[in-house]
Every structure is written in structure tokens, then in C-alpha cells.
Amino acid sequence: MPDRVDEEKRATLRRFAALGAATPFVGSLRDDGDDERRSDARDAIVGYVGATPGAHFSKLRDDLKLGTGETQHHLKRLLSDGVVESRRDGDYRRFFPANRFSPFEQTALGYLRRRTPRGMLIELLRTPDATGTDLAASLDVSRATVSNYAKQLEAANLLSRENGYAVESPETVITLLLRYADSFGEDAATFAAEADSLIRFDP
């Protein structure tokens, strides 16, 4: 069993390391005497953050099958070298490729990585006149849960509650959902498959 786990870990690291190795500046990080395995782990973190922007520490660590100390070590180096950046989001610290996303996009990605807020945003993009009761029924959560997250989304400038609920900067939110659909949940993948009908182009 340990051999199988190690092989799964190596395969996961190699898959994301291939993405990370193509990232500018990563090659220069190998001049510190790291062995190949540690370099692969660092490249894998870069590749993972690029493919899953807004992931928090525990998800990153677990998806890459790394140890806590190992993950902390490499993230500290990547942060100090300006390859990745982080943003505090409540109890989480979320990680992003450096200089790629605006503060609004980072905030949006953080909420899109949470199941209920993501579901609310997707449902409102599909059905702009959906009420809080509609959202609660669609997501199988309480009306109080919808109200609580609506307040948070409004404070984050992702939602307006002036006349019902309306997604702020919907084009940006849709773009993030489409670009990173595979890294969210099944609801985002389904939304991406039907998104052509939601996008309107000026003639």
C-alpha cells in the first residue's frame, strides 16, 4: 500500500509539475540545492495554483498529496520569490499566480470555491429574477443560509441587493467560471456547457 500511495503522489506531482515548469521564473528557483523530488513539488504547486487559483492551503496540500511542512516550505519560497501571492479570506489563506488577477477577481475566485455562494451566483446568472426562496430551494439550503451568504457577497461587491439579487460584474464572474470550470464543482462544469446561451455579443 505505501508503494502505491507514493506512486500516486509522484504521478500527481508530475502532472502539475509539467504545468508549473512552463511558468516564467520557476526555473530560477532550482539553484538552491534542492533535489529533483523537491523541485518537482515546487513546480507542482505552481502548476496547481495556476490551474486552481484561489485554492486554500489545505486543499492544495491534500490534492497534491504533500505533507504540511513540505507545503509550507515551498509556498514560503514561492511567495518570497514573487511567483505566487496569497490573500486572506476569513479563516482561509488562498493562493494565486502572482500579478494575474485583480483584487475583485481574487475575491470572486474565493467565493466561487465555496459550494453555496458558487451555486447562488450560478443560479442568478441563469435566472436573474430568482428570489432568496428560489435560491434556497434550488440549492437545498435554508433561506437563512442564502440570506447570510447574500450579505457576504454584497459586502464583497459580488452581489447587489437593491432590487432583489443581481450579480455584480457578471461578465467577469462568467469568465472565471468558464476558464476554471473543471477546478470548481459539477455545477460549474454544467454551467460552462450551457453558457453560450447566457453570453450576448454586441452587433
From TrEMBL:
Q: What domain of life? A: Archaea
Fetch the InterPro entries from UniProt.
HTH_11 (IPR013196), HTH_HVO_0163_N (IPR056504), WH-like_DNA-bd_sf (IPR036388), WH_DNA-bd_sf (IPR036390)
Q: Name one GO molecular function term.
A: DNA-binding transcription factor activity
Question: Which residue range or ranges hold the Helix-turn-helix type domain?
Answer: 121-158
- Domain HVO-0163 N-terminal HTH intervals: 39-109
Per its record, how is this protein called by name? Uncharacterized protein
